[in-house]
Amino acid sequence: MSETADKIPAPPVPPVPPEQIKAIPVRHYGRWVAGALVIAVLVLIGTAFSNAKINYSIIPQYLTDGTILSGAWHTLYISVLAMALGLVLGVVIAVMRMSSNPVTSTVAWFYVWFFRGTPVLVQLLLWYNISLVFPVLNLGFYKNEMNQVMTPFLTALLGLGLNEAAYMSEIVRAGIQSVDLGQTEASHALGMTQGKTLRRVILPQAMRVIVPPTGNEFINMLKTSSLAYAVQFNELIKRATDISSTSLAVVEMYFVASIWYLILTTVFSIVQYYVERRYARGSSRSLPPTPLQRLRKNLRLFGSFRRPEVAR
User: Fold this and answer.
1) Which residues cross the membrane (predicted)?
2) Domain spanning 59-280: which CATH class is it, in words?
């Protein structure tokens, strides 16, 4: 009996469970300090503006004032026209700069160098006083005093549009150079001319690169158009200043103008977002959902959680 008992194996010892790990999160004291400093600065700024001698109650009523609305319309109008002029001329200058002709490429390079190197305000003032150089405009079929020709509108259009063309030419040139050279060679092998290749093959593919910075340039144009105030063009800042000169509400009118600029830039930022998605559809990357798509998805999820169960 003792030998049989010795041959019986001992019951296995249950394994000892490992000691539970207690994770201690890392304390980021710097984040708390930075957050407290930011909140303190915001409180100080808010306190300063609340105690300032500003009549905030008149700001809403001037937002829809006829003079302010006229200024906002002129701001939008001159921005669209100047951007269109800059885009068309920018394509021409970009093609000239990429040309193998040394004369056209040099002229295009000089154009970009000059207009990007001088302030927009200086260019506007030069166009406004161009009559000192050319007192009379004589085109053969049309002759008139330059002071009569260079109205504030035309001055603002030329000053803003020609300056924008220098920047748009570089954007278009970068977009054209992003298209593989084999596309041009294949088009020429099919008998397409240089101009047709540019219109039908190169530019449509380059739009994916051209559109995002072009949208940024237009939004910047909305704000740069305020410099046309210096040449007496009736844009938003000019209209706001006219009201402030009679009502003495200077800072209040600047707030009104700032709100309208924010409205315009926000609207066109949304338009830019969807235009970029339109031209990015052919890319290999999957597009993220739009804010409206995310909102609909969240509403469906919220509805599924709130839906009552059907009684069986």
Assistant:
1) 32-52, 72-96, 254-275
2) mainly alpha
